[in-house]
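Task: sequence design from structure.
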């Protein structure tokens, strides 16, 4: 079935999002200041799927909140769909769809009631409203759950309902904060295909995700950010080519004996993430031969996994740490 809920805006030449020097500082009474977003520059073209990647605490949600007008920036300039923020919040919200990081559906209402209440915020005409909402339910594969209470839905169903709700006003820009976190593989694939449909209709998508396969699959362009700043921007393929060697050999459970592998550093770039060592290289055959030559000096044979480099490697290289402390 084909659906058409987004509004195509690709003919408009202004970017969907244009942020210059955007800052957000939180002041704590006892802890001092947190600079969550730090002079962030962002340009999201229309009609693309744009990703915002970064470790926990990098400032992604805070950035989205400022774009959505739910949190005023401390400084900097911001234009959404050619409108100025702060100032044009009401006009901007009428053109936006929002899938927040935490579900904020009303658990006591039914699926259809949730959609009706949300529709009333936009003052949509009653004529044809039911047919429109039924189409949205079909889009979200929730037709048979129409009268069910939201509380009784699974996590994946709630996520799909939140997406359906975000499309009620035929938004030009849909902002999704970790739309597939906690979903099973089937639910993720369903949501991806819905997002691909929306993009094909010309709707601009701006999403955050911690799933690198998701970002690689969906995003035409993305930024990797950390400490509230953009570290780099490009298509997934461009970022991979720019930041990492084409092949990765993972040596599992080798971190504790990393000194035995130190001689590989000239063969490629040797990095440690968690309990594994990662050898990033242009010549994997040479690298594998060198690793095999080390085998007689090791207590146990190495467990090797070889694969082409991906966005996860870019992420690890750019953001540098295994685990974000304090996030
Ligand atoms: N309302 C708030 N008051 C004080 N500090 C906040 C507030 N919201 C966010 N922060 C701080 O701002 C920083 C960025 O948080 P943010 O939620 O934007 O990160 P994130 O990139 O979305 O992380 P995650 O991937 O975990 O969702 C963190 O240090 C966080 O503790
Ligand atoms: Mg977040």
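Answer:
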């Amino acid at each position: 079935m084909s659906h058409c809920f987004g509004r195509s805006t690709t003919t408009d030449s202004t970017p969907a999002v244009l942020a210059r020097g955007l800052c957000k500082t939180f002041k704590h009474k006892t802890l001092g200041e947190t600079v969550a977003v730090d002079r962030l520059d962002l340009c999201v073209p229309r009609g693309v799927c744009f990703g915002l990647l970064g470790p926990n605490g990098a400032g992604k949600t805070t950035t989205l909140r400022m774009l959505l007008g739910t949190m005023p920036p401390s400084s900097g300039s911001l234009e959404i769909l050619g409108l100025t923020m702060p100032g044009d919040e009401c006009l901007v919200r009428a053109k936006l769809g929002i899938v927040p990081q935490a579900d904020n559906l009303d658990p006591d209402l039914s699926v259809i009631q949730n959609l009706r209440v949300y529709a009333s915020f936009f003052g949509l005409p009653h004529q044809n409203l039911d047919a429109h909402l039924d189409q949205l339910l079909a889009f979200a594969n929730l037709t048979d759950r129409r009268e069910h209470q939201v509380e009784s839905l699974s996590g994946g169903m709630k996520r799909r309902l939140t997406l359906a709700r975000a499309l009620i006003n035929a938004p030009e820009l849909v902002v999704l904060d970790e739309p597939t976190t906690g979903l099973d593989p089937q639910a993720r694939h369903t949501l991806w295909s819905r997002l691909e449909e929306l993009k094909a209709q010309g709707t601009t998508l701006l999403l955050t995700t911690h799933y690198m396969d998701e970002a690689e699959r969906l995003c035409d362009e993305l930024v990797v950010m950390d400490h509230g700043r953009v570290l780099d921007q490009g298509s997934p393929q461009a970022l991979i080519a720019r930041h990492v060697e084409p092949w990765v050999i993972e040596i599992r459970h080798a971190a504790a004996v990393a000194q035995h592998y130190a001689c590989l550093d000239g063969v490629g770039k040797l990095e440690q993430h968690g309990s594994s060592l990662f050898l990033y290289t242009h010549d994997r055959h040479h690298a594998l031969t060198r690793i095999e030559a080390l085998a007689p000096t090791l207590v146990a044979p190495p467990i090797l996994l070889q694969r082409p480099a991906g966005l996860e490697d870019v992420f690890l290289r750019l953001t540098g740490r295994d685990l974000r402390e304090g996030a």
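Residues 26, 34, 36, 54, 56-62, 101, 327 surround adenosine-5'-triphosphate (ligand 1) (CB under 6 Å).
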